[in-house]
Design a protein that fits this description.
One of its GO terms (molecular function) is branched-chain amino acid transmembrane transporter activity. This protein is α/β, with parallel strands linked by helices. It contains ten helices and ten strands. Helix 3 runs parallel beside helix 6. The protein binds adenosine-5'-triphosphate.
Length: about 230
């Protein structure tokens, strides 16, 4: 579904991504882990067209989208839940979900909002509450629900566990698994490597802009180097 080939990204003099190669097959959860500043968010931002790569290819269903604008990439079926959630704080939960569907022209939007609310019952209880007054976990659910309104083939999640209590993290990760089981492919960026490796099929480890390990998630969980460097064990 997605193939990143020799991707490089610069911010002025900073070489943030160095020849990144990543492959995501249809139906998988793939995770990208690594320390602060490793380039995880930059990778997702390059994929969704929010940053322009300096070189390399991003093949999404076989088409190179590296130079496409963000709105076209969303319309092709890739949707991005950014770091920090970025919900529209002054709009209600319902309005945020409606805005998630802004590119759609069909008549099923109201029905799909109900389907999202079935997945996130907490949001149904807070439907007319302003998004800025939701808890961190609820905002994460809303950001994910909003991204799902486009019915993406590939969902990009940037640190969904950030700042959340362990029980809420478990809840969010269970929902990610369920979204994946229902047919959405997931690329998950996480600093919580343990939680991410537990639900992912495949993993890549980024260090200062380069991929230093890759493999199936279970074997990375059992690898001594990974355990001491990234899992704090
Ligand atoms: P974190 O978990 O802290 O968000 P990350 O792995 O997602 O880290 P990035 O945010 O992708 O890392 O940052 C990679 C590198 O690029 C860092 O050195 C960062 O300082 C730099 N960087 C990111 N965004 C910009 C920007 N807009 N301008 C300049 N440098 C940037």
């Amino acid at each position: 579904m997605l193939e990143i080939k020799n991707l490089n990204l610069h911010y002025g003099m900073i070489h943030a991504l160095r020849d990144i190669n990543v492959k995501v097959n249809k139906g998988e959860i793939v995770t990208l882990i690594g320390a602060n500043g490793a380039g995880k968010s930059s990778t997702l931002r390059a994929l969704s067209g929010l940053e322009k790569a300096s070189s390399g290819e991003i093949l999404f269903e076989g088409k190179d989208i590296a130079k496409n604008p963000a709105n076209e990439i969303v319309a092709m079926g890739m949707s991005h839940v950014p770091e920090g959630r970025r919900v529209f704080a002054n709009l209600t939960v319902y309005e945020n979900l409606e805005l998630g569907a802004y590119l759609r022209k069909d008549k099923d939007i109201k029905k799909d909002i109900q389907l999202i609310l079935d997945k996130f019952p907490r949001l149904r209880e807070r439907l007319y509450q302003r998004a800025g007054t939701l808890s961190g976990g609820e905002q994460q659910m809303l950001a994910m629900g909003r991204a799902l309104m486009i019915k993406p083939k590939l969902l990009l999640l940037d640190e969904p566990s950030m700042g959340l209590a362990p029980i809420i993290v478990k809840n969010i990760f269970d929902i990610i698994l369920e979204i994946n089981k229902n047919g959405t492919t997931v690329l998950l960026v996480e600093q919580n490597a343990h939680a991410a490796l537990k639900i992912a099929h495949k993993a890549y480890v980024l260090e200062t802009g380069s991929i230093v390990y890759e493999g199936d998630a279970k074997s990375l969980l059992e690898d001594d180097t990974i355990r001491s460097a990234y899992l704090g064990e």
